[in-house]
Amino acid sequence: MSSFGYSQYSFDDLKYLTSPFEVTETSLRTSLSRMIRESIVQSMKEGKTAFYCLSQKGKTISSNVSLSFKELDWDQWDREWWGFLFSVPDLQNQHRHKIRKKIVAYRFANYYPGFWIRPLNSDEKIGEHLQPLINTGNCALIKFRFEKEITKEEVAKLWKLNNINEALGTTIRDVEEHLSVAEKYKPEQGLLYKFLVGNDIVNALFNDPLLPDEFLPDNWKGKQLRRLFITFDKTMTRIAKPYIDKHFQNE
Protein backbone atom coordinates (compact mmCIF):
# COMPACT_ATOMS: atom_id res chain seq x y z
CA MET A 1 0.00 0.00 0.00
CA SER A 2 2.98 2.29 0.45
CA SER A 3 3.24 2.48 -3.35
CA PHE A 4 0.36 4.98 -3.48
CA GLY A 5 2.70 7.80 -2.54
CA TYR A 6 1.41 8.80 0.87
CA SER A 7 4.11 9.21 3.53
CA GLN A 8 2.07 7.42 6.18
CA TYR A 9 -1.22 5.60 6.66
CA SER A 10 -3.62 5.44 9.57
CA PHE A 11 -5.19 2.15 10.60
CA ASP A 12 -8.47 3.29 9.02
CA ASP A 13 -6.60 4.01 5.76
CA LEU A 14 -5.18 0.50 5.72
CA LYS A 15 -8.48 -1.07 6.74
CA TYR A 16 -10.16 0.63 3.77
CA LEU A 17 -7.41 -0.29 1.31
CA THR A 18 -7.33 -3.95 2.38
CA SER A 19 -11.12 -4.43 2.51
CA PRO A 20 -11.32 -5.75 -1.12
CA PHE A 21 -9.00 -8.56 0.05
CA GLU A 22 -11.50 -9.56 2.78
CA VAL A 23 -8.85 -8.93 5.43
CA THR A 24 -10.37 -8.80 8.89
CA GLU A 25 -9.48 -6.04 11.33
CA THR A 26 -7.86 -8.62 13.60
CA SER A 27 -5.71 -10.00 10.79
CA LEU A 28 -4.65 -6.50 9.78
CA ARG A 29 -3.60 -5.64 13.33
CA THR A 30 -1.71 -8.94 13.60
CA SER A 31 0.11 -8.30 10.31
CA LEU A 32 1.07 -4.77 11.33
CA SER A 33 2.33 -5.99 14.71
CA ARG A 34 4.45 -8.66 13.03
CA MET A 35 5.93 -6.19 10.54
CA ILE A 36 6.73 -3.76 13.37
CA ARG A 37 8.38 -6.59 15.31
CA GLU A 38 10.48 -7.44 12.26
CA SER A 39 11.39 -3.74 11.83
CA ILE A 40 9.80 -3.59 8.37
CA VAL A 41 7.15 -1.07 9.42
CA GLN A 42 7.31 1.63 12.05
CA SER A 43 4.42 3.31 13.83
CA MET A 44 3.94 6.72 15.39
CA LYS A 45 1.08 8.45 17.15
CA GLU A 46 -0.52 11.80 16.51
CA GLY A 47 -2.91 12.32 19.37
CA LYS A 48 -4.87 9.08 19.67
CA THR A 49 -4.35 8.09 16.06
CA ALA A 50 -1.60 5.64 15.08
CA PHE A 51 0.11 6.03 11.71
CA TYR A 52 2.25 3.50 9.90
CA CYS A 53 5.02 3.76 7.31
CA LEU A 54 7.91 1.71 5.98
CA SER A 55 11.06 1.64 8.09
CA GLN A 56 14.50 1.88 6.49
CA LYS A 57 14.58 -1.94 6.40
CA GLY A 58 11.20 -1.96 4.68
CA LYS A 59 12.40 0.55 2.11
CA THR A 60 15.48 -1.60 1.49
CA ILE A 61 13.31 -4.67 0.90
CA SER A 62 11.15 -2.65 -1.49
CA SER A 63 14.26 -1.43 -3.29
CA ASN A 64 15.60 -4.99 -3.61
CA VAL A 65 12.30 -6.15 -5.10
CA SER A 66 12.46 -3.34 -7.66
CA LEU A 67 15.80 -4.74 -8.88
CA SER A 68 13.83 -7.57 -10.50
CA PHE A 69 12.36 -5.04 -12.92
CA LYS A 70 15.64 -3.56 -14.13
CA GLU A 71 17.59 -4.99 -17.04
CA LEU A 72 21.32 -5.29 -16.44
CA ASP A 73 23.72 -4.00 -19.06
CA TRP A 74 26.06 -6.86 -19.99
CA ASP A 75 27.50 -5.28 -23.17
CA GLN A 76 30.84 -4.56 -21.48
CA TRP A 77 31.02 -7.80 -19.47
CA ASP A 78 34.66 -8.94 -19.33
CA ARG A 79 33.98 -12.62 -18.45
CA GLU A 80 34.70 -12.06 -14.75
CA TRP A 81 32.61 -13.90 -12.16
CA TRP A 82 31.78 -13.64 -8.50
CA GLY A 83 32.55 -16.69 -6.40
CA PHE A 84 30.96 -16.99 -2.97
CA LEU A 85 32.41 -19.55 -0.57
CA PHE A 86 31.08 -20.50 2.83
CA SER A 87 31.59 -23.18 5.44
CA VAL A 88 29.33 -23.39 8.47
CA PRO A 89 29.52 -25.97 11.31
CA ASP A 90 26.71 -28.53 11.32
CA LEU A 91 25.33 -27.14 14.57
CA GLN A 92 24.68 -23.74 12.96
CA ASN A 93 21.90 -24.76 10.60
CA GLN A 94 20.03 -21.49 11.08
CA HIS A 95 23.08 -19.48 10.06
CA ARG A 96 23.61 -21.72 7.03
CA HIS A 97 19.99 -21.19 6.00
CA LYS A 98 20.37 -17.42 6.33
CA ILE A 99 23.46 -17.46 4.10
CA ARG A 100 21.81 -19.60 1.43
CA LYS A 101 18.68 -17.45 1.45
CA LYS A 102 20.74 -14.29 1.00
CA ILE A 103 22.89 -15.51 -1.88
CA VAL A 104 19.89 -17.03 -3.67
CA ALA A 105 18.19 -13.63 -3.37
CA TYR A 106 21.17 -12.13 -5.20
CA ARG A 107 20.81 -14.76 -7.93
CA PHE A 108 23.87 -16.91 -7.25
CA ALA A 109 23.81 -20.54 -8.39
CA ASN A 110 25.39 -23.45 -6.55
CA TYR A 111 28.36 -24.60 -8.65
CA TYR A 112 29.92 -26.95 -6.08
CA PRO A 113 28.99 -27.63 -2.43
CA GLY A 114 29.88 -24.46 -0.55
CA PHE A 115 30.77 -22.58 -3.74
CA TRP A 116 28.25 -20.35 -5.52
CA ILE A 117 28.79 -18.30 -8.66
CA ARG A 118 27.35 -15.34 -10.55
CA PRO A 119 28.54 -13.25 -13.52
CA LEU A 120 30.06 -10.04 -12.19
CA ASN A 121 28.16 -6.85 -12.95
CA SER A 122 29.27 -3.86 -10.90
CA ASP A 123 25.81 -2.26 -11.10
CA GLU A 124 24.48 -4.94 -8.73
CA LYS A 125 26.87 -3.89 -5.91
CA ILE A 126 27.13 -7.51 -4.79
CA GLY A 127 30.21 -6.87 -2.64
CA GLU A 128 28.40 -4.17 -0.71
CA HIS A 129 25.23 -6.20 -0.20
CA LEU A 130 27.03 -9.34 0.96
CA GLN A 131 29.54 -7.61 3.24
CA PRO A 132 27.49 -8.33 6.42
CA LEU A 133 27.67 -12.05 5.65
CA ILE A 134 31.40 -11.86 4.94
CA ASN A 135 31.91 -10.14 8.28
CA THR A 136 30.58 -13.21 10.09
CA GLY A 137 33.84 -15.01 9.29
CA ASN A 138 32.18 -18.02 7.64
CA CYS A 139 32.12 -16.60 4.12
CA ALA A 140 34.38 -15.19 1.44
CA LEU A 141 33.67 -13.38 -1.82
CA ILE A 142 36.16 -13.69 -4.67
CA LYS A 143 36.48 -12.62 -8.29
CA PHE A 144 37.62 -15.21 -10.82
CA ARG A 145 37.63 -16.27 -14.47
CA PHE A 146 37.00 -19.74 -15.80
CA GLU A 147 40.07 -21.34 -17.37
CA LYS A 148 37.68 -23.13 -19.71
CA GLU A 149 34.58 -21.04 -20.39
CA ILE A 150 31.36 -22.31 -18.87
CA THR A 151 28.87 -23.31 -21.57
CA LYS A 152 25.34 -22.09 -22.22
CA GLU A 153 24.06 -25.59 -21.43
CA GLU A 154 25.86 -25.65 -18.08
CA VAL A 155 24.44 -22.27 -17.15
CA ALA A 156 20.92 -23.37 -18.11
CA LYS A 157 21.25 -26.38 -15.83
CA LEU A 158 22.75 -24.44 -12.90
CA TRP A 159 20.03 -21.77 -12.89
CA LYS A 160 17.24 -24.14 -14.04
CA LEU A 161 16.44 -21.73 -16.86
CA ASN A 162 13.93 -23.97 -18.63
CA ASN A 163 11.79 -24.26 -15.50
CA ILE A 164 12.00 -20.52 -14.86
CA ASN A 165 11.10 -19.70 -18.46
CA GLU A 166 8.06 -21.96 -18.26
CA ALA A 167 6.91 -20.19 -15.07
CA LEU A 168 7.46 -16.81 -16.73
CA GLY A 169 5.31 -17.90 -19.66
CA THR A 170 2.52 -19.08 -17.34
CA THR A 171 2.53 -15.71 -15.58
CA ILE A 172 2.46 -13.86 -18.92
CA ARG A 173 -0.64 -15.78 -19.99
CA ASP A 174 -2.36 -15.03 -16.68
CA VAL A 175 -1.58 -11.30 -16.92
CA GLU A 176 -2.76 -11.13 -20.54
CA GLU A 177 -6.02 -12.82 -19.51
CA HIS A 178 -6.63 -10.17 -16.83
CA LEU A 179 -5.81 -7.35 -19.24
CA SER A 180 -8.27 -8.72 -21.81
CA VAL A 181 -11.18 -8.18 -19.39
CA ALA A 182 -9.72 -5.35 -17.27
CA GLU A 183 -12.17 -2.69 -18.45
CA LYS A 184 -15.01 -4.71 -16.92
CA TYR A 185 -13.46 -4.60 -13.45
CA LYS A 186 -14.92 -2.41 -10.73
CA PRO A 187 -12.47 -0.02 -9.02
CA GLU A 188 -12.09 -2.27 -5.95
CA GLN A 189 -11.35 -5.22 -8.27
CA GLY A 190 -8.65 -3.15 -9.94
CA LEU A 191 -7.05 -2.65 -6.54
CA LEU A 192 -7.38 -6.32 -5.69
CA TYR A 193 -5.77 -7.58 -8.89
CA LYS A 194 -3.12 -4.85 -8.88
CA PHE A 195 -1.65 -6.54 -5.82
CA LEU A 196 -2.65 -10.20 -6.20
CA VAL A 197 -1.51 -10.54 -9.82
CA GLY A 198 1.27 -8.01 -9.20
CA ASN A 199 2.57 -10.32 -6.48
CA ASP A 200 2.62 -13.23 -8.94
CA ILE A 201 4.61 -11.09 -11.38
CA VAL A 202 7.09 -10.06 -8.68
CA ASN A 203 7.63 -13.67 -7.63
CA ALA A 204 8.11 -14.79 -11.23
CA LEU A 205 10.58 -12.01 -12.00
CA PHE A 206 12.42 -12.56 -8.74
CA ASN A 207 13.42 -15.96 -10.16
CA ASP A 208 14.79 -14.38 -13.34
CA PRO A 209 18.57 -14.63 -12.79
CA LEU A 210 19.24 -11.56 -14.99
CA LEU A 211 22.07 -13.25 -16.84
CA PRO A 212 23.93 -12.12 -19.98
CA ASP A 213 21.84 -12.76 -23.10
CA GLU A 214 24.40 -15.24 -24.41
CA PHE A 215 23.38 -17.70 -21.67
CA LEU A 216 19.60 -17.32 -22.06
CA PRO A 217 17.29 -19.45 -24.23
CA ASP A 218 16.33 -17.77 -27.49
CA ASN A 219 12.70 -17.50 -26.35
CA TRP A 220 13.52 -16.06 -22.90
CA LYS A 221 10.37 -14.41 -21.50
CA GLY A 222 11.82 -12.23 -18.73
CA LYS A 223 11.94 -9.05 -20.80
CA GLN A 224 8.42 -9.61 -22.11
CA LEU A 225 7.02 -10.00 -18.59
CA ARG A 226 8.80 -6.87 -17.36
CA ARG A 227 7.26 -4.82 -20.19
CA LEU A 228 3.86 -6.41 -19.59
CA PHE A 229 4.00 -5.57 -15.90
CA ILE A 230 4.28 -1.85 -16.67
CA THR A 231 1.14 -2.01 -18.82
CA PHE A 232 -0.70 -4.13 -16.26
CA ASP A 233 0.20 -1.97 -13.26
CA LYS A 234 -0.76 1.27 -15.02
CA THR A 235 -4.07 -0.24 -16.13
CA MET A 236 -5.04 -1.56 -12.70
CA THR A 237 -3.91 1.64 -10.96
CA ARG A 238 -6.14 3.66 -13.31
CA ILE A 239 -9.10 1.37 -12.70
CA ALA A 240 -8.55 1.42 -8.92
CA LYS A 241 -8.09 5.20 -8.70
CA PRO A 242 -11.77 6.07 -7.98
CA TYR A 243 -11.78 3.63 -5.07
CA ILE A 244 -8.55 5.05 -3.61
CA ASP A 245 -9.54 8.70 -4.18
CA LYS A 246 -12.94 8.18 -2.59
CA HIS A 247 -11.31 7.50 0.77
CA PHE A 248 -8.37 9.90 0.76
CA GLN A 249 -10.29 12.86 -0.70
CA ASN A 250 -12.93 12.49 2.01
CA GLU A 251 -10.42 12.63 4.86
Q: Helix and strand string, N-terminal first?
A: EHHEEHEHEEHEHHHH
The description of the largest β-sheet is: 4 strands, antiparallel
Regions with little confidence, pLDDT below 50 for 5+ residues: none
Overall pLDDT score: 91
The count of DSSP E runs of length 2 or more, i.e. the number of strands, is: 7
Structural class: alpha+beta
Radius of gyration: 21 Å
Strand content: 5-15%
Helices and strands, with pairings:
Elements: E1 9-10, H1 11-18, H2 25-37, E2 41-46, E3 49-54, H3 56-66, E4 81-86, H4 93-105, E5 109-112, E6 115-119, H5 126-134, E7 139-144, H6 152-158, H7 161-180, H8 187-206, H9 222-248
Antiparallel strand pairs: 1-3, 2-3, 4-6, 4-7, 5-6
Helix pairs in contact: 7-8, 7-9, 8-9
What do these coordinates show?
The protein is of the alpha+beta class. The protein is 51% helix and 14% strand. The chain has helices at 11-18, 25-37, 56-66, 93-105, 126-134, 152-158, 161-180, 187-206, 222-248, and strands at residues 9-10, 41-46, 49-54, 81-86, 109-112, 115-119, 139-144. A four-stranded antiparallel sheet has the order 5-6-4-7. It has a three-stranded antiparallel sheet with strand order 1-3-2. Strand 5 and strand 6 form a beta hairpin. Helix 7 (161-180) runs antiparallel to helix 8 (187-206), helix 7 crosses helix 9 (222-248) and helix 8 packs antiparallel against helix 9. The model has no long low-confidence stretch (mean pLDDT 91).
